[in-house]
Design the sequence.
């Protein structure tokens, strides 16, 4: 009799433990699967059709290369008013480009918006107001030790004077940046700290300081600041903090040089795992994880980190692409599917 009475409280405790666990499970699934209140698309404004590698000429005009032009040796720069959708031809230029869809599609507009630096099989300096075209060679081979790896596209950025630009000398484990001067075709080499990872010139600030990111895959290793005012140039690492618990896809320096826009993805979180499980139960034939794409803005050192919004998208589709700052530094833009979107960064 005593044994039966002692078993009953234990049995009741087990029942309550199961009820509590089930309740926590239901709450967890609800929290994970409910719509995200910080939807990026809901906060964004569609600004017409999205295009590859666009550049902002003003807060309402974008510049890009029309890929439909033939023959392949002839390229056409056009600009589009994103509010009226009016398209205007800017100029044509020649290119020995082999394949637009396999790299070699990078372009940078000078700070004064008068000259385009187009990176194809060579550098092409293209004044927007004339038909002049000047070509400069660049180092397209990735060399590690004595091995020549696949070609790559240089990472470049204009200086504030709109006359010179810098280039990373090599994609990975680069040991220097190269300062180009088109007036004399002279170059200046500036050594960088040794390290590993892919390196990218994020930009040059109005104070003539180059900001370079060094990443190992989706993780930020360090930011490097190169003060181009000093002779010789001063090089130092710049401590920063990346967005939390996410893989980095893009980093873009603001035109004012004081902030970074980050594009990240998260595919290893709880909501992604539950989504995979639920899609399997539904028998939709689309079993798979979703990826959370987010855009963030912060100071260079990672302080004042702010998420502008996030969307969870199926892995089978495209995420957000081509992150850019607008010239006023108050908004950022991105391409999603066939649309160009802007979202306030304030």
Sequence:
């Amino acid at each position: 009799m005593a044994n039966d009475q002692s078993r009953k409280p234990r049995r009741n405790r087990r029942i309550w433990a199961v009820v509590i666990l089930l309740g926590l499970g239901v709450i967890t699934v609800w929290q994970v699967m409910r719509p995200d209140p910080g939807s990026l698309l809901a906060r964004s404004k569609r600004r017409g059709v999205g295009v590859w590698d666009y550049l902002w000429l003003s807060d309402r005009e974008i510049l890009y290369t029309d890929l439909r032009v033939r023959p392949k040796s002839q390229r056409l720069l056009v600009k589009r008013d994103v509010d009226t959708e009016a398209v205007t031809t800017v100029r044509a230029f020649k290119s020995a480009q082999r394949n637009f869809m396999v790299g070699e599609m990078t372009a940078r507009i000078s700070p004064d918006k008068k000259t385009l630096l187009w990176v194809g099989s060579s550098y092409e300096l293209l004044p927007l107001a004339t038909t002049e075209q000047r070509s400069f060679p660049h180092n397209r081979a990735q060399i590690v030790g004595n091995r020549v790896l696949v070609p790559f596209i240089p990472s470049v950025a204009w200086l504030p004077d709109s006359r010179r630009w810098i280039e990373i000398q090599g994609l990975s484990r680069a040991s220097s940046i190269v300062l180009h001067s088109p007036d004399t075709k002279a170059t200046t080499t500036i050594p960088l700290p040794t390290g590993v990872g892919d390196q990218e010139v994020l930009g040059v600030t109005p104070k003539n300081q180059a900001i370079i990111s060094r990443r190992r895959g989706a993780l930020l290793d360090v930011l490097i600041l190169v003060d181009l005012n000093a002779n010789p140039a001063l090089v130092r690492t710049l401590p920063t903090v990346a967005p939390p618990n996410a893989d980095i896809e893009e980093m873009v320096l603001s035109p004012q040089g004081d902030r970074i826009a980050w594009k990240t993805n998260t595919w290893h979180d709880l909501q992604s795992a539950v989504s995979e499980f639920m899609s399997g139960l539904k028998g939709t034939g689309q079993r798979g994880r979703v990826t959370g794409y987010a855009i963030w803005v912060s100071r260079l050192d990672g302080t004042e980190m702010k998420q502008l919004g996030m969307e969870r998208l199926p892995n089978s589709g495209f995420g957000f692409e081509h992150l850019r700052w607008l010239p006023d530094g108050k908004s950022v833009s991105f391409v999603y599917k066939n649309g160009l979107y802007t979202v306030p960064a304030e």
Summary: Residues 59-136 form one domain. DSSP finds three helices and 26 strands in the chain. Residues 245 and 269 are 9 Å apart (CA to CA). The radius of gyration is 25 Å.
